[in-house]
Structures are given as structure tokens and as C-alpha cells.
């Protein structure tokens, strides 16, 4: 669809459109079905998620409720775990690496709306991708905004709002989220 292609090019578009509304409704129905399946219905849940998402690797857990806009723009690696209430607004591509842990109540946004009230009411919007590297831990109640890249091995502290890129192997915290220190071998714990 041309409007989605324009979003993926970072162009401003009029997003209130019957074809987009139809796609959103279809995915909303699938999310509703997923969220009504019992956790023990693993094969049904996996089949539904694989039909919704652009790609998901092996060995994953996505606790309900889970919500997304299109699903097909979400690409997730192996050994993924998300806790309850993950929301991904995937008007643009969301890439999540291998061995990523996501805490409860996390929101990932790829869409922004016009600041002008009249344009916003007309559905003027623009998308930007979100990329999350391998071995990332996103703690609970984190919000990730459009255009952000989180580097491999980073940890995003609970309650943070990620507005800019976070380098690999850094602990980042706050609103707006900022790296506060590198994660080193000194952070290993005895087990």
C-alpha cells in the first residue's frame, strides 16, 4: 500500500484512510483473539503470533495482553521474552534482536502526529523505525519513541522514556532517558 510505503520513507501522510483502517481492524481482531487464549494454549498462541508478525524467532514468550497496530512490521529474534501489556505501534519497522527481555507495561512507538491541531485532526502523521539490539533488557513501564536505536547489551531502567539512541553495553535511566554508565565485567554477580 502506497501510504504505508510513504510512512516507511519517513514522509508525512494523511493516515485516516479506509485501507489503513481495515488493516488496523484486522490486527486488532487478531490481538483480541490472542489475548483471550489461555497461556496453556501455546501452539494456538504461537501460530497466531507467527501469522501476525513480520518475523519471530525460536523460543519466545509473549504474555497477554499484547497489542500492536499492524504486526507485519515487527521483526523479533530468538529467545525473546515480553511480560504483560506490551504495546507496539508499528506503523514503521520495529526490529528486536536476540535474547531481549521486556518488562511489563512497555510501549514502543514508531508513529508521530502533526503538532498543528487541524492537521492532527486530519490524520497527518509520520513514522520512524525503532531498533533494539541483542541482549537488551527493557525494564517495566518504559516508553520508546520513534526513531530510537538501543544498542546491544543495554539496560533501560524502569519508568524511562527513551527519546534518543542508547549506546551498547550502557545502563540508561530517566525521562528523558540518558546513559549513566557502561555495563562492565564488574557487574557480574556470583550465582
Number of helices: 4
Question: Which CATH first-tier class would you pick?
Answer: Mainly Beta
In spatial order, strands of the major sheet run 3-6-9-14-17-19-20
* H/E topology pattern: HEHHEEEEEEEEEEHEEEEEEEEE
CATH fold assignment? UDP N-Acetylglucosamine Acyltransferase, domain 1
Strand content: 25-35%
What class, by secondary structure content? alpha/beta
| CATH-defined superfamily | Hexapeptide repeat proteins
Roughly how much helix do the residues carry, as a percent range?
A: 10-25%
CATH architecture: 3 Solenoid
The overall number of domains is 1
From the N-terminal CA to the C-terminal CA, the straight-line distance is 52 Å
Count all strands and give the number. 20
User: Whole-number average pLDDT?
Assistant: 97
Shape from CA axes? globular
Please identify the oligomeric state. single chain
Low-confidence stretches: none
* Overall radius of gyration: 17 Å
How is the biggest beta sheet arranged?
A: 7 strands, mixed
